[in-house]
Amino acid sequence: EKGGAEGYFNKTESMFKRDRDQFLQQNAKYDQYNQSGLVSEEIEVNMDEEISDSSVPDVNQFKDGLSMNQTVADFDASRVGTRDHWKDVYENELSNFHATGDPGECWFEEESKCMQRVSWWVRNEFFTESYKTARILDVGTGNGMMLIELAKFGFRRLTGVDYIPQAVELAKNNIKASKEEGGPLYGMPDLNDLHVEIFVDDLLHSNLPDESFDVIHDKGTLDAISLSSKEHVSAYLLTCARLTVKGGLLVLTSCNFAGEELEHLLEETKRFKRAGGLSYPTIEFGGRRGSRVVSQAYRRI
Question: How many alpha carbons lie under 13 Å from residue 112 in its C-beta half-sphere?
């Protein structure tokens, strides 16, 4: 499947070396942060495997994978890229919430802990001093669990949007439940300062004001849009650029795109410059090595 399993491993040798070095630095900081008690669960990583020279694969072994020049135009349209699909998903998840209290599925979280790692990374690397005042928009917020994770890391000005009304209702329910006894935000200091706004909005047709946010966060939304059309991807990224303040960040987490593919897409907009990447533990599949997900930050220029 183009952009899927093949896309995970389509990286050059230099990209692997860069990601490996970043991973070592970030994981050391993350371990210190975890020991402080602010992170709920440590992520186990085989460090020996990561730093071994043998973990840097020969780029030639990827010759049958996606090429650097392939873009979203190569993806086949899928129902996952349609409003009807997500309406069905969140109608079901909202029904489950009312029946059992289940907050809903968190995509590709079980092994990668993306929400926790990204929240820590954005605070630790980009908003060390100003995280409480940073205005963050979570696009395609779904069940709202990313907003809760950001709040756990001290971010206090949060907005979530989704074009599915049932997702917005589910997210609001989850935010409310998170503040109640037994919830992940219950008893947190300065919780009264937390401002969360969640509403229906489609960034392909958004009327949100220009430069409204310091950070736009996207986990999987670009993936879904890419299964719709290339024109939608371009329109979406340009809207993200319009809504982000100059010098602000667009943070993308993808399970469809390799890091180089994301860089290519963002370079085409001429509005973003890569500001960094968050590295994940690697896996080996079919003799190839790579990570299941990619997280990158782009500075608005």
Answer: 23
